[in-house]
Amino acid sequence: MNPKLTRLTAKMLVSKGACADQVSKFRRLWPRGVVPSRAAIQRAEKAGLCLDWYAKHFLSASALATYDAARATAWVTYDAARASAWATYEAARAPALATFDAARAPAWATHRASKANALADALGF
Q1: CB atoms < 10 A from the CB of 49, how many?
Q2: Which of 76, 68, 111, 22 minimizes the C-alpha distance to 10?
Q3: Based on C-alpha coordinates, what's the Rg of the chain?
């Protein structure tokens, strides 16, 4: 936290160029502003406020570097979990997709042939 920042207000967000949607969300959560705290940050995140924007505009350079390093670690962890989940999903989906493709193949072939015949007919062949 910026030691000089004892209360964050919507006016401060506006002065730093926050978008209207974010300022509106902030005002709904804290009409009179908020004293930054872990609980307030967690509430902001759950409400969809952009924590990265806040960090970029309010943290000191050293605090931002610490935040970015922690974020990078969190992304590595998330990406690994996502990759594993995606592989499981693809493995489960593959048989269903193969069944779907096999079932639709004759209809697709008929459709393409009908389209070709329709164009030939339209051209008078």
Answers
A1: 20
A2: 22
A3: 27
| Token pair listed for 106 | 């004759």
Q: Comparing C-alpha atoms, which of 52, 46, 42, 41 is closest to residue 75?
A: 52
Three-point CA angle 98, 101, 104, nearest 5°: 150
Tokens of 11: 């006016």
Name the strand (E) or helix (H) holding 55. helix 51-58
Question: What are the tens digits of pLDDT across the range 10-61?
Answer: 999 999 999 999 999 999 999 999 999 999 999 999 999 999 999 999 999 9
Model confidence, pTM: 0.64
The position carrying tokens 């096999």 is: 102
CB 41 within 8 A of CB 53: no
Query: Which residues 6+ apart lie within 8 Å of 94 measured at CB?
Result: none
8 phi, psi to nearest 5 deg: -100, 130
